[in-house]
């Protein structure tokens, strides 16, 4: 069922997954570093390899709007964007979740303007954080391929019916040619049932979608959406289990790397986790008790799993590849909040790094951990600490 | 009482200026050196639909409350039709005051309510028609408020009225003074011979009772919603003049004029908003608009 | 007057797709136009509606006045949502055995169409989706309280372009959306007005048969925003047409056709003085409007006389 290993750019790996999902409608607007994904798909459609409607919309706002329309009639729908594109789309992003339309979107994580930067960080995703989508972070092309397939199954599951974003680091993941195990169509068909909307826009059974809610209704609609998002974790876990059984590639909301007997745990999200793993290898070789915790599921936030993974440590160092201007790093503040109820809390220090495409190499990660430990030792955990910025 | 907060709820219809009444009340109170708020019930209500407006007034210190008024001290009903439609005394405090614009007699109105309240009645419509030339009573009703309560003085209204109405301020002020003179004050008792009244209570679903994505499948269910009580006039047909052309039915924005078995047309008054289009467009003048009782 | 002289019941379906109990203002011409549009569209329709009066008056959760499938998402994207619906149905037909014959319709007010949603509309027209776009033009943002739009006529007073001591209110001329739509080289464009039910229904039925995009711009009388008595709604629309302020015409494959040609137009004064929003205009300003109206009217007439291939 798992085919042989092939070389492929990660963006095209995502396109392959979308093709295997036999998507019906793609509506997208180009923006670096997302372009290769949608160009790949356009080519497949043009060559008849993928039977889908490709709508070359005139903006990201219209891309997501068209996705809503397509999804609402019961068509399987995909889009991709990045950075300013995601932000232009943002108004529509909140509607997708509220109407419970299972659109799947790849986000090629990109820094925000304006000093225009086409390069990667997580600031765009963080601005879309509260919009009611499921967010899955991936580290490399294989994971991007796998999670795109999983995303359709999760999104369209009758107990979920929510949009899903697969968050892929711009350039560091999207533009790398690497090796992949693809899946054959038969396996995918078994894994991914057809999409059925329970109450689609249908002339024979008319429905009204998108009523406005007065104060006596709105709060309940929000709670319903929030609960749907929280409860989606069950289907996410079940989907990953099934996918693991099928492919041998296993995914969890929070993934640990060599954390046994470690005093210090580093927390990362996205493609830099791979460098962090190499740093952990080296640090452990030299006898340091430093392990790595990778956050894969960003929404719904896996509080339980995170607490379980981190509560035994003395020190926790969180890398944020986003800046919440004027406030603490977004991932770090959520981790602090998750750990706060513990009686015996680890020291937590947040470090902001890798903005606008700046590298954090394995060597850098060793230095970053040392910086974190130094701050903890000297009692400066409350500071806003940036790594790799010229000061 | 003097230093306590006084809360007022205004009942009107979209387009009748209940919000203006509340605003003028607040401005007059502030003019007197008091502290006051005026605010509308924020919503998408259109012309004709029942709306609310509110005031809070305090003498000695700032008003900081920023929530809806649930237990008012004073209720002012600008539109006479609302009395039978809405529970206007909902939450009205014992000892509170109910002020109604109505041509009905005090004795008759007393039978509609039971509670320990003061009742003030004025036929504001005829005053407004006489002095302002229109049936818009939002400023006229301020006179009844002044007579029935002590929240504001008549003179403090002068400036706010001028600001708002310019040249028309004088006639509005006169209407207000006239209303104060004509207002009849009486009492309502909690018991006695009362007309039974009941109001539908909306059953609201819990969060987990909402359908996925809040999709509504019971389409066209606004048909259960009565817009007929928005109207202040209704059409009446003179069949002898009617040629059964159906023009009236095509031009009704409510789609509520239907042909009957005998071929003549009638409006479903459950929906008719009293716009008057049908009467205006009937070329044989078979329809005339009649004021609501 | 339109030739609707006789016996409506024989000519028009009784079926309503926008139910009574909706919350439009008493005498609303926009919901009246919507009634006709829906009657002409019939049941095999999916509507994408922009935020605005027609959306708000029809869909307070858990209620809906709609009896055809209908979706509202945002203010500026009705055309883009319609693109998605149309493409989705196409894919379902090709791939999943879907067989229904559905017309996709996007609709919005003049703000949703000519201002904030112009880009999405242009995109959808240019891409050639098979859909109808209906603009209900009540000449301001009515839903939010009569603010000016680019469709507000010269001289009208609105809440964001009010007449005042040093301003006459709107000082720009109405944007020509029909020409903008036609510039996309789409097969069918038409203007209509809420006082002309048969004209609206005729044009919608025609648009329904067109393969590809069509655009219908309907002047929709709003007694609340125009400040006229609710009983005058029909009269006001007729005056707009009979004075030449809002001519009714079609543009079929680029060819103009004036539908109601008046050898002698009524003076615009009749129209302007009947509405509160124009009450402040001076004689000179009315004369200026009169002149412009004649020029624009003649332009459409001239275009209508120019036939292709001749
Ligand atoms: C992005 C955005 N900006 C502003 C609004 C507020 N808004 C809602 S409806 C509306 C005006 C609608 O005007 P129009 O399209 O002319 O339709 P009408 O209500 O007049 O029928 C505005 C400004 C909004 N909903 N969304
Ligand atoms: S418009 Fe007048 S004549 Fe025609 S059907 Fe109606 S009432 Fe009769
Ligand atoms: S007055 Fe006539 S046109 Fe207006 S809502 Fe009533 S029946 Fe319809
Ligand atoms: S404001 Fe105008 S368009 Fe909107 S519902 Fe009222 S009359 Fe109709």
Task: Give an overview in words.
The complex is a heterotrimer of chains A (391), B (293) and C (310). With 391 residues, chain A is α/β, with parallel strands linked by helices. Chain A has two domains: 3-247, Rossmann fold; 254-386, 3-Layer(aba) Sandwich (Rossmann fold), CATH 3.40.50. In chain A, strand 6, helix 6 and strand 7 form a beta-alpha-beta unit. Chain A has helices at residues 10-20, 35-46, 60-72, 83-98, 123-127, 141-156, 185-191, 215-247, 272-285, 303-310, 330-339, 362-377, and strands at 2-9, 25-27, 53-55, 77-81, 104-109, 134-137, 164-169, 177-183, 208-209, 254-257, 264-268, 290-295, 297-299, 315-320, 347-353, 385-387. In chain A, the strands form three sheets. Chain A has a seven-stranded mixed beta sheet, sandwiched between helices. In chain A, strands 10-12-11-14-15-16 form a six-stranded mixed beta sheet, sandwiched between helices. A two-stranded antiparallel ribbon of chain A has the order 1-8. The mean pLDDT of chain A is 97. With 293 residues, chain B is an alpha/beta fold. Chain B has a seven-stranded mixed beta sheet with strand order 2-3-1-4-5-6-7, covered by helices on one side. In chain B, strands 8-11 form a two-stranded antiparallel sheet. A two-stranded antiparallel sheet of chain B has the order 9-10. In chain C, the strands form two sheets. In chain C, strands 2-1-3-4-8-7-9-10 form an eight-stranded mixed beta sheet, with helices on both faces. A two-stranded antiparallel ribbon of chain C has the order 5-6. Chain C has twelve helices and ten strands. Chains in contact: A-B, A-C, B-C. At the A-C interface, helix 3, helix 4 and strand 9 of A face strand 1, strand 2, helix 4 and helix 6 of C. One iron/sulfur cluster binds next to helix 7 of chain B.
Write a concise synopsis of the structure shown.
The complex is a heterotrimer of chains A (391), B (293) and C (310). Chain A contains twelve helices and 16 strands. By secondary structure, chain A is an alpha/beta fold.
In CATH, the topology of chain C is named: Rossmann fold
| Through-space gap between termini of chain A | 53 Å
CATH topology of the largest domain in chain A: Rossmann fold
What string, H for helix and E for strand, traces the elements of chain A in order? EHEHEHEHEHEHEEHEHEEHEEHEHEHE
What is the terminal-to-terminal distance of chain C?
Answer: 32 Å
- Provide the structure class of chain A: alpha/beta
> In percent, how helical is the residue content of chain C?
25-40%
* Annotated CATH architecture of chain C: 3-Layer(aba) Sandwich
Please mark out the parts of chain C with pLDDT under 50 across 5 or more consecutive residues, or reply none: 1-5
How much helix is in the residues of chain A? 40-55%
Main sheet overview of chain C: 8 strands, mixed
Ligand species: thiamine diphosphate, iron/sulfur cluster
Fourth-tier CATH superfamily name of chain C: Thiamin diphosphate (ThDP)-binding fold, Pyr/PP domains
The CATH architecture of the largest domain in chain A would be 3-Layer(aba) Sandwich
Strand content of chain C: 15-25%
Strands of the biggest beta sheet of chain C: in what spatial order? 2-1-3-4-8-7-9-10
Q: Give the full name of the CATH homologous superfamily of the largest domain in chain A.
A: Thiamin diphosphate (ThDP)-binding fold, Pyr/PP domains
In percent, how much strand structure appears in the residues of chain A?
15-25%
